[in-house]
Amino acid sequence: AAITFGKHFESQAKEYAQRVKDWEARRLIFFKWLLFIIIINLGIYLYLFISDKLNFWPDFPPREIFTLEYGAVKLALIGILSYAIGFASKNYSANSHLEIINKHRKNVAETLKDFLGSNPEAGDRSALVRSGSDSMFRGSATGYVSKGDPVINNEPTGNILSSLLGIKRE
Questions:
Q1: d(CA 105, CA 129)
Q2: Distances (CA, A) of 132 to 68, 137, 140
Q3: Measured in Å, how far apart are the chain's first and last C-alpha atoms?
Q4: 117: closest CA among 130, 133, 128, 101?
Q5: Residue 23 and which of 4, 100, 127, 144 are 20 to 30 A apart at CA?
C-alpha cells in the first residue's frame, strides 16, 4: 500500500507542479500588462505635460486627454488587472501548497515502506503504520496557504479602494 500511495502522491505532485508553472506564467503576463499600461500612461502624460509647458503644442494641453472619464476607465482597468494578479497569485500559492504536501506524502509513504521492510516487531510495526498514516494525511503548514486568506486579500487595488471608501473587509 505504501508503494501505491507513493506513486499516487508523486503523480499528484507532478500535476500540481505543472499547474504552479501555468499560474506563475499567467501572473507574470498580467503583471507585465499592468506595468505596461502604467508606464505608457506616465510617458504620454509627461510628454504632453512638458510639451505644453514649453509651448511646443499649445493647442493640445494634457488636461484635454487626461479627463476624469479617462482616469475612471484606467482605474477600472488597473483594478481588473490587479485582481487578476491576485487571483493568479492565490492559485499559484494553492497549487504550490498541494505540490509540497503531495511530495511530503510520497516521502512518508516511501520511508514507511523502508521501515516496514526492516521487519520490526509487531508493536513497533503498528506504531510505524499509525505514525506514518497520521503524518501522510494530516494537513501541514507549508507557508504557501494560510487559513482564512481569501483571494481578495491578495488584490491590492481592492484593499486601497476599500480603505478609501471606509469599507471593512473580512
A1: 13
A2: 62, 9, 14
A3: 43
A4: 128
A5: 4
User: Phi then psi for 146, rounded to 5 degrees?
Assistant: -115, 155
How far is 59 from 52, CA to CA, in rounded Å? 8
Are 81 and 9 spatial neighbours (Cβ–Cβ below 8 Å)? no
Calculate Rg over the CA atoms of the chain: 26
Confidence (pTM): 0.62
In three-state form (DSSP H/G/I as H, E/B as E, the rest C), the secondary structure along the chain is: CHHHHHHHHHHHHHHHHHHHHHHHHHHHHHHHHHHHHHHHHHHHHHHHHHHHHCCCCCCCCHHHHCCHHHHHHHHHHHHHHHHHHHHHHHHHHHHHHHHHHHHHHHHHHHHHHHHHCCCCCHHHHHHHHHHHHHHHHCCCCCCCCCCCCCHHHHCHHHHHHHHHHCCCCC
User: Using CA atoms, how far apart are residues 114 and 129, in angstroms rounded to an integer?
Assistant: 12
Cα separation, 46 vs 60, in Å, equals: 13
Give the cell for residue 154: 491578495
